[in-house]
Amino acid sequence: MPRSRVLIIAGVVIVAAVAIGGFYVYDQVLRGDNVAALSLPSTAPGAAASSAPAATSSSSDPTTTASTGAAASVRGGGATGDVAGTWTVATGSQAGYRVTEQLANLPAQSDAVGRTDKVTGTITLTSSGSTTTLTAADLTVDTTSISSDKSQRDNRLRSEGLQTDTYPTATFKLTQPVAVPAAALTGTPSDITLTGDLTLHGVTKSVQIPAKAQLVNGTVSVAGSLAFPLSDFGMTAPNIGGFIVSIADRGTLEFVVNFSKG
User: pTM score, two decimals?
Assistant: First the structure.
């Protein structure tokens, strides 16, 4: 057999092996989770039997509109009391990431999603007349506890991408007050915009996060998401085999955080 033909056959075999190997790794390690976006709970988290609400899809994207004017009593389910004061992160809170994967030049069948319920922090609400305002928010997420449906992916994120071994927390600090819509205090999901400093992967950026808020049975819930280039926070998208399996340089922060007073 001519040497040129042997080389061609060997090249084809190598390319096929690499492609098959890349697909196997993609299928076993990086294939997306097909998980619905986080959204506001349909009932007060404290009233549920489980420690965290199941994620449900939300057909509408949060907008950046914040209404003014709000009642000063805790409503949305019959509970009473002044909303002004400090509220602490409560049961059912979750935060995490969503990224799009790619095999060679083909789009992934679904997104890869990782989440954690290790969210801590507080918010402060003030009331003046008929106006309620969110004046402070300090939240911390334990990134080392973020997990997806595949441990291989999670292990990879410890040293690449999020690099959770080096950056074990992500934080958000509100920098501008938010007028709480009156409808939110009567149990209706309402649009707000959270402006603040997001620290991720050791990099702090001023961001505006579109979100929805509601008060139901004495529990304040806030859900939202923020899409951004990974490079904005100094992250390099992990890949396997270079061109074979890669993650797009764009990720989404997702969260639903519940707060209880006292």
Answer: 0.74
